[in-house]
Amino acid sequence: MRRALTLSLAVIACASVAPAAGARGKTVPVRDPGGDATVIAVIDSAFSPYHWDFLASHMPQAKDSDRSNDLPLTTAPDQWLDGFPSPAAFDSYEGLDLTLEEDDKDAQLEALDAADQDEWAKVKPSSRDEVNYYWMPGTKVVGALDFGGNQIHGGSGEHGMGTTSVSVGNIHGTCPECLLVFISYSGAASGEAAIEWAMDQPWIDAISNSYGFSTAYRDRVYSGSNTQAQRRATERGQTIFFSAGNGQ
Questions:
Q1: What are the two backbone dihedrals, phi and then psi, of residue 75, each rounded to the nearest 5 degrees?
Q2: pTM (2 decimals)?
């Protein structure tokens, strides 16, 4: 069963179970590992997936004693996430083997990032006509796309670091149980391409946007969006957020 979202991006996830035959003909619930997964897309400049906010091992599900609610986050999302498209839907589809530090809370994010330059070099930009999709095994990042030509990743001071942490962070987030699709952008055209792709993905439950383009009235006013696509996505059940101050 799909989820209902609150306006704060905190989400009430309803477990999806299917009946299975048990001993002596009894019916026992079997958890669908992707059936109760809530996916938030964040569109921003860059972020650092090395922070404990994004590690699979630090998600609430991984820290409780119930192993049945753990998500298979070392496995490609097309293998388990409800509604996820076939890899054939993308021009490329690849996992990034990142250097994750699950035990040392003082590990420097920038040093971990620097150790993975060969992995980051694999990332190709996406556009309206070409979608290159990446996921990060061992993290809650089930998707990362570079619509802005900035390679997705960055340091702890990136604006996208704050928006992703407050949305889905294990430690600082309003929905620590949620999964992340991070989409980078660098301007109005790439921002529009990014959100239109996300709005066309029914398996993404919510989209968080924290940016603005226009000088018609004042700086950082958002304008020019495809409102019809937003209406279709909203009526289908997707929730779309813009930060206060980015509207007219």
A1: -110, 145
A2: 0.83
